[in-house]
Every structure is written in C-alpha cells, then in structure tokens.
C-alpha cells in the first residue's frame, strides 16, 4: 500500500491512498473483496451484499480490474457512480493505469457504437415482437376452442404454444438486459415488462434469471463462476473440467464417455420441465421472492383456467410438460451452440474482449436464424455489448470483426447445423478425455 496524498476523487476532497494491482489481487476472498474500475480501487466486501445485480456477480471480479464489465452492465453511469463514492479506498499508481492497445481500441469501439446510436432501441421492433407472441398464444387456445380436441388440433395448438414460450424466452432476455427502452425512458419499464413477460407469459422467476444469467455474462465459460458450465454432476465440458473431474472423482457417477449420447435424453428435453422447474421454485422460496411467486402463480392460474375445461386437468398437465419439453429442446440447442464448443477453463482475469471472444461464437445471420435464435446468433456482439438492442447487433459486426483481425482474435461464425453438431462433437471429445484420464489415474 502506497502513501496517501491529498486530492479530489469523484468530486470529494479526501485522502487518496495509492494501491497497487498486487495489493488488489490479495483481496479476492469471500470476506475481503476489492476491485478496480477506471484506475480507482473499491472495497466491495459489504456492498456486494446489497448489489442490485447480486453479490455473486460483482464478487466474481474481486481482486481484478472490472472497468469494462462495469461499463457493459450499466446504462446510466451517473446514477451508478453515487454508489461508488462511499466504498472508494484508493487509486492505482500512474505506472499501472496504462491500458493495453486492445483495451483502448475496444473502448473506442464502444464510443463509436454510442455515436452511431446503436444503443438506442426501436420500440416498434419490440412491440411487434411481443405482438406476434401474443398472437400465437391466442391461436394456441383458439385451435382447441373452435376446432376441437383431436390429435392434430392438440399438436397444432402445442406447436403454437411452443413458439410462444421459446420467443418469450428471447424477449424477456431483452427486457432483462435493459435493452428495450432508452435512457429517456426509465429502466423501470424494462424491469416491469421483464416481470410481466417472464412471470405471466413464461411462468418463471425474473430474479432467478437475473441471478443466473448475469453471472454467465460476467464470466462466460469460467469454471466455478459461470452457472451454465457448473454441470459436472451430469456432463463434463471443455478440456480442463474432464481432467479435473477424472483425477479427483469430484463429479457425479455418470459414464461421461457416453455423454454425447445420453445428452439427447437427459439434456435438452429435461432442462426446462425438470431442472429449471426445481431450481427456480427453490430460488423463489429460499429467498422469499413473493412478487416473483405472484407472477408465476398468475401464469399457472391463467393456463389451467383456459385449458382444463378443454382437455381436462390431466390433459392440461400433459400439454404443459410437453410444451415445456419442446421449448427446452429449442432453447438448449440454441443457447449451448454458442458456448459449449468453445474454450472452458478457470478464471484467468482476462481482458473483457478476450474473455468474451474465447467463450462465444456466432451463427450465420438469416431471417430464419435471427428469429429462431432471438438474434443470439450474434452472440459475440451481444456478449461484448449486452445492453445493445438486438436489432442493432448486426450493425456493429463489421467493426468487431475488424478489431478482432487487428489483434489476432478469432471471430467464429458457423452454420446453424454445424453449431448444433459441434455441441455433440465437443461432448464426445470431453467425454473421451475424461475416460482416458480416469483410466490413467484409477486403473490400478
């Protein structure tokens, strides 16, 4: 810790301590957490418990520079900075405040995107998207109400409802990232619609989604920090996890060398109807999220009120879980195609752009791919700029590609088929890696 000096920090005349990066790195424990934002050092140990994005999200950057992550997650910096003043404890020395060329170029790219108006959403786009979801929900009901309840009517109705649920997953993602309303509107509109859409249309907890998804964005494909790869009870992914699990026997009792086959049975079909159902209700009850429970209850009341008179209670339950299964397969193949085949490893405190490119890949754009994936086929751009409205992601693509080329970063784009196939190939490779390591360490 360096000596103090007088100065003005964040508009406050106070004693400024010089804190080195090595000092910051020592404070990465559960009960002692510092981080760096724009060369200033903050003690987040107590504040993390009150952090609106959740304590885990901000704690993932303990002992690290969180400058670009801070900018990526917050739309209104003026409102956020007032929370930084009380927890400011020092500043980095000038010798450690020099950004790399990549960091400077990336921040200039963000400024260019802002100047181009790419963070300004189109209310018409999101209104039209929500409108087409509501149209399919009405159609799902009308098919049974007016055409009868034969097998083909039920299948057609379930197809409509599957579209409702899958597309709702994409638009709630927009509201959850605060990307549907501009700063001239309050972000409260994003939060309100996130609750209504996620809860009343999808039957899920917005708070649970925020808790899980923001961690994924903060540290994508980082073992121990990204919930999306905390799956070793059923699957091992990447090149590091299979070896660690095999050496320590720390995973489940699954035959991971067969995971590329049992993935089709216990992976996509069961993610929503089983795993997510358990996780979200446990999250709501253990954290006493009564508002979340209220909107989720509204979904189930609406659903069974409408469908029980048509197909009976048992039929409505079967209908519900069948739709959840198809929605789950749609969502899982899309979501995992962008990340599972990419590099997965422990946290190395990489620069923001490097970390996002390492863990993400794109799928070729087309009218169908854009609609089918909710524009998550622009996964790289979305991860670099999570608050950018999805209808503008394609506009920043050429600039991102140019920056990647300049700095030797791999910008991967795949066909939809190859993206799906790579999930299975990567699972097979990771499974075989686990098997060979397990035999080597435990064959005697």
Question: Any descriptors?
Answer:
8 strands; two-stranded antiparallel sheet; 444 residues; single chain; alpha+beta; four-stranded antiparallel beta sheet
Main sheet specs? 4 strands, antiparallel
Unreliable spans: 5-13
Calculate the mean pLDDT score and round it. 92
The portion of residues forming beta strands comes to 5-15%
List the secondary-structure elements in sequence, H or E: EEHEEEHHHEHHHHHHHHHHEHHHEH
Please state the structural category: alpha+beta
Q: Percent range for helical residues?
A: 55-70%
Shape from CA axes? globular
Spatial strand order of the main sheet: 3-4-5-6
Question: Count of DSSP helices?
Answer: 18
The number of E-state strands comes to 8
End-to-end distance: 51 Å
Radius of gyration: 23 Å
Can you lay out the helices and strands and say which pair or pack?
Blueprint: E1 4-9, E2 12-17, H1 21-25, E3 28-29, E4 32-37, E5 40-43, H2 55-59, H3 67-73, H4 77-81, E6 88-91, H5 101-115, H6 123-147, H7 151-176, H8 187-201, H9 206-218, H10 240-248, H11 259-266, H12 271-286, H13 290-337, H14 352-359, E7 362-363, H15 367-373, H16 379-384, H17 393-407, E8 413-414, H18 416-442
Describe the protein in words:
The chain has helices at 21-25, 55-59, 67-73, 77-81, 101-115, 123-147, 151-176, 187-201, 206-218, 240-248, 259-266, 271-286, 290-337, 352-359, 367-373, 379-384, 393-407, 416-442, and strands at residues 4-9, 12-17, 28-29, 32-37, 40-43, 88-91, 362-363, 413-414. The protein has 18 helices and eight strands. With 444 residues, the chain is of the alpha+beta class. Residues 5-13 have low confidence and may be disordered. It is globular and about 75 Å long. It starts with a strand and ends with a helix. Helices cover 59% and strands 7% of the residues.
